[in-house]
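Researcher: Good morning. I'm working through a list of sequences from a screen, and I'd like to move beyond sequence-only analysis. For each chain I'm collecting a predicted structure so we can compare shapes side by side. This is the next one on the list. No need for commentary yet; just the structure.
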Amino acid sequence: MSESVISVSELTRRFGATTALDSVSVSLPRGAVYGLVGANGAGKTTLIKHILGLLRAERGSVRVFGLDPVAEPVAVLSRIGYLSEENDLPGWMGVDELIRYTSAFYPKWDDAYAEELRRAFALDPAAKIKDLSRGQKARMGLLIALAHRPELLVLDEPSSGLDPIVRRDILGAVIRTIADEGRTVLFSSHLLQEVEQVADHVTMIHQGAIVLSAPLDDIRESHRIAGRVPSLDEIFVAHVGTPASAADA
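Model: Good morning. Structure tokens for this chain:
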């Protein structure tokens, strides 16, 4: 658990007059589920884009597997599975066609595991992506993210706007992924109840700055009130003043 898969140090990012990330430092240990929580617009996606090498650090440093994701994108991304809220899949492709196409990019693609996931998610191999429901597209995106058995799984608001059944499938897949020895998960969400179910370590981010970061059990224990352990939502409100889900209200 001591080796860091992701190491971010004093990362700052501005967009015009807006500071999206303010001297953010995080370290994600191997084999852990790391919950990154905050309201929409708090800076979670901006941080993840730096981790994926989609944005270059203006100040500070980002290392994934000890590598600079901007300088060595292939070496980094080939070891990452990624699912976001947008989940932009090519609508003109069929389910089976997209699976075969994606497999060509990953030497460690596991055909048997991909088929296992397809059946578990009840995806028709002949169906066109454009004809899938939003929940089915989320399951398809998750299949693509998992079938090459990545060392790091990055989930950026993966269940936002989805029904409880699809959310359950996504959480179940996360649990199965971390059950494999050495797998690591970065789970970003404003739905704190979901993060609380699976996370080992939680980092709370608000307006681009980290307000709290510690193992989940330590966070719960340190915020115990009169013998009662508050929920992660309650702890977030105590630090920030508003619920993380307030933006969706």
